[in-house]
Structure formats: C-alpha cells, structure tokens
Design brief:
The complex is a heterodimer. Chain A contains no helices and 11 strands. Chain A is mostly beta strands. Classes of the chains: A mainly beta, B mainly beta.
C-alpha cells in the first residue's frame, strides 16, 4: 500500500536555487495538499488542490508554486530558495475536502535545507 | 487564524494511562482529529470526532470533547513504549484546511 509518495526525502539547496518536490497518491483521491512543518509551529498549509485542474493558496503560499499535473500528482516548486524555507514538507491527500469531513492522509515528508 | 494549543511534552511510565490535551478557538469546528507522528515519518491518523459528539472510544484510545470549553483530549490506556511519538490535534472548520496544534511529544518510560 503506497498511499502518498513524495520525493526527494532529503535535499540541500543553496540560496537562490530552484527545485520541485514531487508527490503522487494511489488512492484515487480528489484533493491534495502541501504542508510545511517547523519546530514549535505545527503544520501549516502552503497550497491545496480541491480537484484536478484547480489550486488554491493556503496559510503560507509566498515563495512557492504548485501544479496539479493530473489526479494522482501534485508538485511543489521553490523558484528561488531562501533559508526561511528550510523545513519539512508534507504532501497529503483526501477523498474530498476536509470541510466535508474527509480525513487527510500524509506522505512521509521531505527534509529541505537551504544554506 | 485559528489557534490550536497543546503542551509540548508528556512523560508517562509504561502501563499507565496518558492524557494529551488540546484547546482550540474556532467554535465552528466540524471535526477534530488526532494524528500520531513517529520519528522520520509522516502523520498517521489515529482517530477523529465529530463536533456534536462528547466521546469516542476506539480500543485503547478515548477521545473526549468539551465543546463549551473548546477542549479536546486523547487518553491512551495501558501506554506502551511503541506509543512514544508526537501527537497532533487538528481542527477542521468550514475552510478547506486543517489547523494543527504544535504537537505533544509523548515519552514512555519502561
């Protein structure tokens, strides 16, 4: 049972470099999410995609872009990485939006360090 | 935005009960969740409770909700060393998001 798979698991970037975090889910879920986790701050939503073809900003979207490539895949791009983007990034998916009472399933996380 | 608060640390002896507490501010919360995060892993959904319920029991887990005080708790009976992890509460509101607490690190002492 793969569930939500994200790559890479670890990455070190220099300030100003760009990179894309990839995410895929095999549960046929409609909604997908990108969160970041920082010490002492819990998880914060960066962007989400309610369904294929749509994306919306979450709490902390600045410095990021996303693409919902198809129903399975949702990527997160850092165009010009900054040290403040050093964090653990989690991709997640749910059958439909949480406002309808659907639960979210998480990937294992991507540890990103920007130096 | 919504504010979800938890204490950061809890230590218990193996075999005792653990109680992890959470307070939230949004009275329109529809669902409240408990997630478990083991080291180096993602968040695993443990259980959830709908806001019109007071209690939910699932094997060793008991969730209590006091909607008037906006207080949620997770009780783990007969705590084992495998329960050592970070536990997050989260609230789901009418928005398309879950708001997470900072997490409580549970340490089980053998």
């Amino acid at each position: 049972n793969a569930g939500v798979t994200q790559t890479p698991k670890f990455q070190v970037l220099k300030t100003g470099q760009s990179m894309t975090l990839q995410c895929a889910q095999d549960m046929n879920h409609n909604s997908m999410y990108w969160y970041r986790q920082d010490p002492g701050m819990g998880l914060r939503l960066i962007y989400y995609s309610a369904s294929e073809g749509t994306t919306d900003k979450g709490e902390v979207p600045n410095g990021y872009n996303v693409s919902r490539l198809n129903k399975r895949e949702f990527s997160l791009r850092l165009e010009s990485a900054a040290p403040s983007q050093t964090s653990v990034y989690f991709c997640a998916s749910s059958e439909a939006l949480v406002s309808s009472g659907n639960t979210i399933y998480f990937g294992e996380g991507s540890w990103l360090t920007v130096v | 935005g919504e504010d979800v608060e938890q204490s950061l640390f809890l230590s218990v002896r193996e075999g005792d009960s653990s109680v992890i507490n959470c307070t939230y501010t949004d009275s329109s919360s529809t669902y409240l969740y408990w997630y478990k995060q083991e080291p180096g892993a993602g968040l695993q959904l443990l259980t959830y409770i709908f806001s019109n319920m007071d209690m939910k029991q699932d094997q060793r887990l008991t969730v209590l909700l006091n909607k008037k005080d906006k207080h949620l708790s997770l009780r783990i009976a007969d705590t084992q060393t495998g329960d050592s992890a970070i536990y997050f509460c989260a609230e789901g509101t009418g928005a398309n998001n879950l708001f997470f607490g900072t997490g409580t690190r549970l340490t089980v002492i053998p």
